Amino acid sequence: MAVLSKHPAGAVPGPPARERTGHLLLRTWCTFVLFSALAGLGWINAIGAVASGVLTVVTAVVSAVLWLVLRPAVQWRRLPWFAVAYIAWAGISVLWSHWPGTTVLTWLLVVITTLQALFVAAVLTWHEIVAALATALKWCVGLSLVFELAVSLFVPGRLLPQFGLPIPGHHYDPIVFWSRANLLRGGFWHGLVEGGRIQGIYGNANPLAAVCLVAIIVFAVRIAAGAPRRTLLIVWIAIAAYLLYRAESATILLAAVCVAAVLAATLAMRTARTPSARTRRYLLFAAVAVVGGLLAWVERDRLFTALGRSSDLTGRQNIWQAVLERTAQHPVVGWGFATPWLPSDPAFDRWIVDHGQSVMQAHNMWIDASMQAGIIGVVLLAGHYLTGIWRSWFFAVDRPRWDLDADRPYSALSVLPVLLFTVVLVQGFAESEPLLLWGWMLPILCVFKVKQAPIVGVGPGERSARLERGEHLAG
User: CB atoms < 10 A from the CB of 422, how many?
Assistant: First the structure.
């Protein structure tokens, strides 16, 4: 005779809770939003600037509609206010801008990028954000490798943007090519190692290297957090590391060193049990940073030579000098927002020329911001990054705590924001990418999410989405 028991050992297990189809579609959309920002120049090279602009506006409209429909719980008092103030100041600059058309267009771009960052942070939890970011990065890394491989195998020579082929007998500067077909140049095995710099879907080695470094960080964080299919994540790290090596970006190699140093400092700080132990570690970190900075400055010529770069950062000093000369004419309020510099505007067309092409950025985000928004803009931008790195640092080193229990384990995901800020800040020394696309989106996303949900898995910013799917939330 069968006996029905209510004891857990005799209970029939039910199926695992599944996410609702609507939420799966939402996560997929957020992944596409992140991919669109990370792909950046890839969209322009593939479909052109006009079509890329239309795509940007359409994705913004879809995200805005989703936001209005979903109405996620948001603490509006905890916006990234310095970033909001910088954007507001950039918009106001149209009143005195020397290139008002460019100001309006590029300001709309940065507003859309900011709203997309806030949208993703508002509708996804920390775990979902990192998972979506990892998927978007896989697409960027994977498409870059497949693209370079396809060009090397099937295209007779180099490839121009929008899949154009060079005209026989016509001279092209290498800077104009989408792909230089370097992946397998000189033979299969020789090309895999020494074929020359590759550019991926970006048409530029530096953005490719930056995205690959971000991918390595995100994949490694996923592994540390116990994500499924970790063996595949290791394979993805190897692919991203190979593309980073082939991109040969000195700036991003320096950023990788800084990321390793910040990660080591974060892990060391987590071992401190008392305030005095933390103070000693801070003093040690400060001393190492000062000594390392002085040594790098003294040996900068040898360092740049070892990295295959000239001491003037491959001509960047000439660009900086020209931009600073223009900045000096309007030092307080600047000339007007323009990120990037649109070469279609007469103010930028042929102003600074590199390899026959009009330069579209100052190759330093601080110098770029000073010309566009003046001292006021630089102060607001510095406030955004200082508060962002401050919050991200303590998000990483403070033990999760919301009651009297002070011994909860750290979350591996909590180190991600401070490492992303490190990449962006180092990249900003030689590039202006941190002022647009993913370089602007990811810091905004991280700051906003840290302020909304300062503990991974706990708080209104984490609870609402998880309870909607019927998941149990401890604490």
Answer: 22
Judge if pTM exceeds 0.70: yes
265-275 burial, b if ≥16 CB within 10 A, otherwise e?
bbeebeeeeee
Element (H, E) at 393: helix 365-397
Helix ranges (DSSP H) in 155-249: 188-194, 205-224, 230-247
Which residue type sits at 241? Answer: A
Please report how the helices 365-397 and 81-92 are oriented relative to each other, as an axis angle in degrees rounded to 10.
160
Question: What's the rounded Cα separation, in Å, for the pair 389 and 387?
Answer: 6
Contact 209, 247 (CB under 8 A): yes
Give the three-state DSSP class for 245: helix
Beta strand segments in 92-139, E: none
Q: What is the mean pLDDT of the chain?
A: 87
Host H or E run for residue 86: helix 81-92
Which residue in the block uniquely carries the two structure tokens 């009143």? 95
DSSP 3-state assignment of 358?
Answer: strand
- In sequence order, what DSSP letters do the residues of 447-462 get, joined into one string? HHHHHH-SBTTBSHHH
DSSP bridge pairs for 458: 455
- Name 268's Cβ contacts closer than 8 Å, sequence gap at least 6: 281
Amino acid identity, residue 384?
A: H
pLDDT in tens, 383-431: 999 999 999 999 999 888 766 566 778 889 999 999 999 999 999 998 9
Q: How far apart are the C-alpha atoms of 230 and 101, rounded to whole Å?
A: 48
